[in-house]
Amino acid sequence: MTKKQKKMLVRIIIAFVLFAGLMICEHAGLFEGIENPFILFVIYLVPYLIIGYDIVYKAARNISHGQVFDENFLMMIATFGAFGVKEYSEAVAVMLFYQVGELFQGYAVGKSRQSIADMMDICPEYANIEVDGKLTQVDPDDVEVGSIIVIKPGERIPLDGVVVEGESFIDTAALTGESVPRKASVGKTVISGCVNGSGTLKVRTEKEFDDSTVARILELVENASSKKARVENFITKFAKYYTPVVTIGAVILAIIPPIILGGGFGEWIQRACIFLVISCPCALVISVPLGFFGGIGAASRIGVLVKGSNYLEAVAEMETIVFDKTGTLTKGEFKVQELRPAGITEQELLELSALAEGYSTHPIACSIREAYGKEIDISRVGQAEEIAGCGISVPVDGREILIGNAKLMQEKKVDFIPCEGAGTIVYTAREGKFVGAVVIADSVKEGAAEAIRDMKRVGVKKCIMLTGDRKEAAWAVARELGIDEVHAELLPGDKVSKVEELLKAQSDKEKLAFVGDGINDAPVLTRADIGIAMGSMGSDAAIEAADVVLMDDDVKKIASVVKISRKTLTIVKQNIVFALGVKAFVLVLGALGAANMWEAVFADVGVSVIAILNAMRALKINKQ
Amino acid sequence: MKKKFKLEDLDCANCAAKMEEAIKKIDGVNDANVSFLAQKMTIDAVDEKFDDIMKEVVAVCAKVEPDCKILL
Predict the structure, then answer these.
(1) pTM of the model
(2) d(CA A430, CA A526)
(3) Does domain A127-221 have CATH number 3.40.50.620?
């Protein structure tokens, strides 16, 4: 509890004791002899002022600032009204009850904010720098790129960098939700925000603090609440109209019926006061964003960053999910599986292919070079010319080499032997003559099939795979994983148009997600309703372009996020229905004269507290 | 220019919404966000007049919710 809250608690206790005493006196008949109602008024005014002086003061101050319809004003009017109709004890009780509710509400919100903050407590406080052989602690903000920092066992890694000395296991749970520690040794990259295990590490920093993983994640999470979900926008708009409407209702209720029906104003003013108490939309205004905040928090705890409430809402409505094959469903590690030379030896074919792909950074090229295993004499390779979507043409030892897919061979009219095999096939031709094919395959990620199954189970209707690979290879993977639809042999640019096509085909209510590894597919990530990227722990382009980032590249987490988002939305909807329902119910009862102040205060603060407690459940949604 | 400010004693969510609305109406403010949960305020405003705009923001907030302090 904060100081303010403690002070409030003391006031509540004093007022409660006084009030209880007065009630006992009243019931014992001690006040019956008092003829002058003014004396009773003064007696009850004492506990009223103790508990409510700040409300009256704030109401007066806010009116002078032109803020009429705030809670304080409404409570003041409502309780003054009770005094006006000589319901002194009710005036005090209502104010007391209101303050108890406010206190509890403030406490609950503070608590929930704290638990979310604790979860996001991944911010390193200092970095150790070695100066003249002595370790000094400095602010991570002040460490320059390229400095050597020392991370002792148990400390949080303050900046992204490369290990230059030492060996340790690193706990990445705060970032990825992954409980198995990762090994860090010389040459390996470490990510800020993780906790060092048992060994001391010396790390050369590669980024400034503001660009480091931890700073960027914190920024994303903090900004997440500014991207509002539709439900949230609805509530904000609703709240703007709700208060004035109910207040006008109160005025009408106080004036019209007594004029038409005759009789005293007192009874109707009391009913109008009930309206005023209920007119604050706080329960909704707090609990809806709090629910989303909790949901985003729950997702980040399993290593999934959701960049806004709107995306969390969209994930809950996700019906179609489109995967980029490589790096998402498959490991993205290509290995040469088979060599099929034609007229030359296997070793010659491999050497020739490796040389031809000598400059390429394509994963397939890398795997060929890796299989070759020897240093590539780049002086033997000439200027390569890329033939988009097909392969390359490059002179090796002065002889023209064509290397690429079947399309390239057809286009260049090379007489080749088509190769049937699961995987990517790289054909090579020398001076127009086919010399062989290399079969390269990528292996399916562990858990990918399970991930697809889980997604289907949580209600994703269609899983689609996009790939540049041949149909046979694509379908082989798709069958293994349980994918419904495959679009193969796509050029990089085709992915955007394919996704646009799919977007057009679906109705407005359905949402389409695209899952990619962030390399080359930033435009698709942006275009889809929900862009889900493999974070690869720090790939900038992916984190930038995506709406949802899987920090540890684990596709299985998608199903968990869908679950979290559904649960969050359910909680938010429960809160809206509950809060509005209770308010509407008490409003009706109030208008009919069947509700008293107590119920009205419950419909205000009581509902808020319950809605807040309910919203907090969003934070506690389990991993499974 | 975008800047973030911490808020102290922002006690009611509805007030945060009202503050946000009032700040957005200030001339030169492109966008504003008052987060009740993070107790933070983000203001995106024209560079040249930022200091003047901030003065206005403080005044507007004092009007809407006098208890809430902006930590500049």
Answers:
(1) 0.73
(2) 41
(3) no
